[in-house]
Amino acid sequence: MSCGQDTSRRPIIKALSKDFVLTASQVTMLFHATVNGEFKIPLLKSLMDNIADPANALFLVEYLSKSTILTKHPTNYSTSASPISKKTLVKGKVKPTDFKLNEHYDGMPFKYGRDWILPTSGIWEFDYVSPRRALKGGAITAEAWLRVTQSIQNALDEGRLSNEVIVMCLRRVSHLFYVNCSQIDVLLAMFPQTSQNLQIRRDIFTTLYNRIVDYVDIREHFCRPRLGLPPAFGPACIAILERQIGMLNLFNPLKADNAAFKCDFNSHEGRLMAQIILRLKKTEDNRIINSRFGASLEVILPMDAPPAWYQCVPFEGYWEGTYVGTNSKMNVRKDIAMTYCAYEF
Prior knowledge:
This protein is α+β, with helices and mostly antiparallel strands.
C-alpha cells in the first residue's frame, strides 16, 4: 500500500473514529497495513478511544506512548504564523505572556516586545503550560486516587506495562481527582530514585502538578531536603522540570528567602523571573548574594545587578544568584503570587 493511499485514508479514519467501535485486532490490521510511519500516530490517536477491548491493545498503546512521550513534550506546538493562525490567536484573546515556554520563531529564540505583532509568515513554536492551579479547597477524591494507585501497583507487580504506558494512562484519568503533596510521595515511592526511573518520576510530577491542592508547598516539598532525606528531585531534575512546566510554576514568592535563581535573559520567562527578584529586592530592601552574569553559561562572572535593570532587564545573557534577607512584605509577595504564579487567597 503506497503513501498516497495512506493519505487518502485520512477521511475514512476520521469517519471510523466518529461512528464505529472497533476491536483491537481490526485496529492492528489497519496499523500494520499503513506504510507511512508518520501516519501511524494519527491513526492510533484517532481510533484508540474506540477500541472495544482495550486490554487486547497493549501493543498499540505501547507503540503510541513510546512514539509520543519519549520524542516530544506532550504540549509542544508548532504553528505557522499565517493569517488563519493569527485570527485564531486573536479570537481566543491569547496574550503572548500567558502560557507559553521555550518559544522559538523560525528556529531562533523568540524575544517579545511591547509593540510586537504576530507576523504573517514563519513558524512559531512553543510549549503550552496551563496557568491554572487546583481549585482552592478542592476536595481530594480518595476513591478515585486509591483506584489509580492500586492499578499502577498491580501493573508493576505483574510487569505487563511499560513506564510510558503507565504515564499515558495516568494522563488520561488525572482530571478525575485532586491530590496533595504527600499522595504524590506515595506514587513516586513506587519508582525509587534510580537512573532508570528519573524520566517516569518527572512525568508523574508534570502530569499531576496542576491537580495538587497544597501547591504553596510544592517547591519545599519536592525540591528541598526534608526530615534528613534527599529531595525528591535533585538540581538536574529541577532544571528539566523548570523547562517543562516553567520556573514560575515551581517558584513560591511567599517563601522567596534563600531562593537560588538562574535567569536566561534570552527567554521571556527568564526576564520575568529577574524582574520579580529585582522587585522583591527593591521593596523589601534585602540582598542578592553570589550574583553572577555573563553572555553564556560557560562565561559567567561576579556582577551585581546594575540600576538600569530595575527599569528594563537585558534581552541577552545569563544571571544567577540567591535572594536572602529577613525583611518580608507579604502584601507584595501575595501580589506577585497572584499575578504571576496563579495563587489564590
